[in-house]
Design a protein that fits this description.
CATH class of the domain at 110-219: Alpha Beta
Catalytic activity: uridine(34) in tRNA + AH2 + O2 = 5-hydroxyuridine(34) in tRNA + A + H2O
GO biological process, one term: tRNA modification
Distance between the termini: 31 Å
Structural class: alpha/beta
CATH superfamily of the domain at 110-219: Rhodanese-like domain
Oligomer: single chain
CATH architecture of the domain at 110-219: 3-Layer(aba) Sandwich
Number of helices: 10
Protein name: tRNA uridine(34) hydroxylase
Shape: globular
Strand order of the largest sheet: 4-1-3-2-5
Pfam family, one: Rhodanese_C
Order of helices and strands: EHEEHEEEHEHEEHEHEHEEEEEHHH
CATH topology of the domain at 110-219: Oxidized Rhodanese, domain 1
Largest sheet: 5 strands, mixed
GO molecular function, one term: oxidoreductase activity, acting on paired donors, with incorporation or reduction of molecular oxygen
Length: about 325
Amino acid sequence: MDYNILLYYCYAQIEDLEAYREEHHLFCVENNIRGRIIISSEGLNGTVSGLKEDCEKYMAYVKADPRFADTEFKIDEHNEHAFAKINVRAKEEIVHSGLRHLNPREKTGKHLEPAAFKALKDQEDVVILDVRSNYEHELGHFKNAVRLDIDNFRDFPEKVKELEHLKNKKVLTYCTGGIKCEKASAFLLEQGFEDVYQLHGGIIKYGMEAGGEDFEGKCYVFDNRLAVDVNKVNPKTVSQCFVCGTLSDRMVNCANPECNVHVPICESCGWEMEGACSESCKTSPQKRPYNGTGYYQKNTNGYNPYKGLYQKPNANKIKTTLHAKSDT
């Protein structure tokens, strides 16, 4: 496969937020990197795709900045771009939690590498805690994991009240790539939990390095693949078809763009419903033609990759600077 998909995050202080956002955006445009990148005063969070050689350049570019030198990239292979365009946005947080006062660089749960997580997860005094949202953990989760009823990660702090009875346990948190666990485990410590851990690199790294044992179902990902296999040891389907209720981990993007929900729909119901998640979506005049995949490429008509580079002279200056860096 000629392409890579990169998943990464890094907590680090960024003071020149808008200038760096422009520089980062322009580098992606010049090197045909696509995806979603969030930049805030607390760091970086991104999922991007590109040709393998372009991804190598991108990783080198990120790590060349001393602020992000220890960034760890989860690297997966793919046969094409996993995104239609590039978006580099400045936001208040790199993952929306409402916990701005917590700095994972100062205090967070103990990081467990996949092998250590695997060795610890089944011990009697251990609780495995999924800190992801409902639509994610319903598609796949670790065997015997505690799963919270949350629609967004920002709901996590309120739900921690339901975990008071677990304060005497070792709590092992996990999420897709590790970023949510940084704030989640830090918050647990702040709330009086004493023995808190997090799966370093998340589900994705666990699948790559530990075979994914005891992760049941598929892992929801935030790119055009929607879901990926994790478990190569004892795989099991746990999600149900949204239409008929039979076991299915076949993720579908509802054919009605006004709905656009991502849910499991079995192949039979996919054809019967023409890719829609409900009768009302099936009869919608906006419904897209269904081709059996349940995936619809975003409409990029008129897309301008330079959009978001607010100051053209500044962008040209950045471009000159980047070329100068590459010559040194």
